[in-house]
Amino acid sequence: MRWRCVASLLTLALAAGSRPAAALSPPEPARYEQAAPSADGIGKRYMGREIAHVMGWQGAAWLERAEREQEERTDLLLPELRLTPGMRVADVGAGTGYIARRMARLVGPSGKVYAVDVQPEMIRMLRDTAAKDGLTQIEPVLATATDTKLPAASVDLVIMVDVYHELEFPYEVLGSIVKALKPGGRVVFVEYRAEDAAVPIKPLHKMSVAQLKREVALQPLVLERVAEPLPWQHIVVFVKR
Fold this sequence. Notes:
alpha/beta; Rossmann fold; eight-stranded mixed sheet; three-stranded antiparallel sheet; 8 helices; 11 strands; globular
């Protein structure tokens, strides 16, 4: 009886070893394609578009330029976010904290603004400007190219202002953002309008609503609305399913 049990166990082990390994299943299609880079791109393509170069910390002064308010009308953008005191929000690609500081005043001392960036130099700048303004509700977060490093299910809203088109790994970063959103949380894309040739921005630094919808469709996000109060940019809002 004991030998029969041993033989049965050996038979099962051999059978298990003969099964096709998981690695033999069809490989996942490559998400990204490589090609010769254009003047403003990195040569990496995602869903039909070339990813643009990231603006380095050396260009930080452009983020704080005096004419930015007039060109981008942040005063019209902020009401579209529908922020209230106590909310927990994140500015991904925060740079110097231009948008994060303005959101911090709306969520108030009882709220939280995670100011996320991949460049340590930008993190230092936004930390200094937040401290100068006494905005203790701003928490700088150093991210990686694939992960925002935001806590899971921690935020009501994530915003990316002129950032998404520069993400080296858009699928992975957006997946990281989805994980960080609370159920029903929103992600807001603010991007220069690719549909409008009159917008004085290089083509790779623009995005169309159709392209955004196409890429976001890979995530558990549902389009809430497209708002167009800004002179040059789309505001496209999605909700976590």
